[in-house]
Amino acid sequence: MEEEVELVDIPSDSDSIDDLCVSDIDDDLNIRDKRNEATKQISSAIFDEEDSADNVSDSDEKWVKSGKRKRDAPFTRNVGPNIPDNVKKPSEIFLCLFSDDLLDLIVQETNRYLQQKGYKQPPTTKEELLIFLGIYILMGVKNSPSYRDYWSANPQLNDPYISSLMSVVRFRFFLGCLHITDNSTEPKKGNAAYDKLYKLRPFLDKVNENFKKNFMSNKYQTVDESMIKCKGRSSMKQYMPLKPIKRGYKCWVRADPSGYVC
């Protein structure tokens, strides 16, 4: 005999999935709706604040410059020459810049160099050095093709005033032996203390000090380059074809409106 089979209603996959997910989908939709509503409320609140801020800035707020205007301290320093009252002559003014301690240094180092080289010349003195400097300055005013012409036997070239002050041999001695530093202590090239201006360094330092001390500079200063004419051989000499002085030493100078080099 055939056995009777009881038919049971088995739900399909689609029915089971629908029955299981309907509640979950409804919950998700409710959560999303609540989130969207909250987002809309927050956005509307932010826009309302921005609109109110714009309205306030347009109606009430104004641009105002912040900070204070810079004011320089008043310039109360005295301006002009700072030399003793008894200094009147040009030679006395020159000695304020070319001071006695500098002259003593030149005399000392020139005599030291004279001994080091063993030259048969008498040592110099400060008075003789001043005569040499005076002659050299006068030669810049009264030019001749050669310094030997001032002692020339030709009366048309000879200068009786200069030739009466010093012999041409002694003048040549100063041109070749004038010194400001001791050659024996000069640092060698490659040394950390090597200085191309070693032989002039004491002179430059002292002259800079005297120039600053003997003149009270103005409020307004100018810093610019200046050429010192030189035709001799030197590694520091420059050639600048567009300058009035084309060959020489280029220096940076701080000058007063009066033209005084500070």
List the helices and strands and how they pair.
Blueprint: H1 13-59, E1 80-81, H2 90-97, H3 100-117, H4 126-141, H5 160-165, H6 168-177, H7 201-213, E2 215-216, E3 222-229, E4 238-239, E5 247-255
Task: Provide a concise account of the structure shown.
This protein is mainly alpha-helical. 45% of the residues lie in helices and 9% in strands. The relative contact order is 0.08.
- Strand order, main sheet: write it out: 3-5-4
Instruction: Write the H/E string, N to C.
Output: HEHHHHHHEEEE
Number of separate helices: 7
Report the major sheet: 3 strands, antiparallel
Describe this entry's structure for a reader:
There is one protein chain. The protein is mainly α. The chain is built from seven helices and five strands. The strands form two sheets. The protein has a three-stranded antiparallel β-sheet with strand order 3-5-4, with no helix packed on it. It starts with 12 loop residues before the first helix and ends in a 7-residue tail after the last strand. 3% of the residues are buried.
